[in-house]
Amino acid sequence: MAIVESTAGIVTEQHRQQFQQEGWFLLKNVVPQEHLELLRRNAQYAIDKCDAEMDHRRVDVLGLNHRGKRYFSALVFKERPELRQFLFSDLMAQICQATLGPNAWLFWEQYVIKCADKGMKFSWHQDSGYVGDPNHKPYLTCWITLDDVTEENGTVYLLPYSVSGIRTWVKHIQEPGSNDLVGYFGRERGVAVVAPAGSIAVFSSYVFHSSGANLTNRMRRVYLAQYSAQVMHRSDTDPSDAFLAEGRNISSST
Questions:
Q1: What percentage of residues in the chain have a pLDDT greater than 90?
Q2: Which CATH number do you get for residue 188?
Q3: Domain span including residue 131
Q4: 165: pLDDT confidence band, cut at 50, 70 and 90?
Q5: pLDDT digit string (tens) for 119-162?
Q6: Domain count of the chain?
Q7: CB under 8 Å to 219, separation ≥6 — which residues?
């Protein structure tokens, strides 16, 4: 069991305060190059996994997945265990400890990919809106850029707590056609995350966010890693993976 190194130089006290006050912060250029390449080389597998499932069902839309437009490919690390090297890395341990505290579990992970020219928008929602239990504690979303993200290629927009005025779970409504769950219908535009590849937008699962369409000729690839301060179940039989216990990394990274 490894003791997590100090967060000095990565997650600062200013970051911690912003997270507590506004629900989010941004870390630019923090993913080591070898981990960035690790995440990138599994992105196509994530797309192929979704396409294969849609082929099997003979559909072009499956949940939030729209063939050739956008993909939400979840729990890829179960089939590609090399991803654990990043998910349970010291970097992610430092982020979790600074936001969640000394105990953390990996709750969810997925690739979120918008295809070139026609990558769809994603509606205003809380990540917690996709969790059926309204009484769960907020968890942590780490939105990791595998490509440079801009407003033109469909980056994420975040509504700080001071803008939305919301710090609790909100019931969402499913949007016909896209199958998105929508929980915010106001006029606020939010803060656009414009950042280079290898950056991480860190935000609470109670923070409302959305993203625009990809209008460029290249894919916009993001990897999502979500952690909780208590055990959360992905299903009745699949609990989250232990990561930190009293500040020690107790995971198996391979």
A1: 82
A2: 2.60.120.620
A3: 23-230
A4: very high
A5: 678 899 999 988 877 888 999 999 999 999 999 999 999 999 99
A6: 1
A7: 113, 114, 115, 116, 119, 147
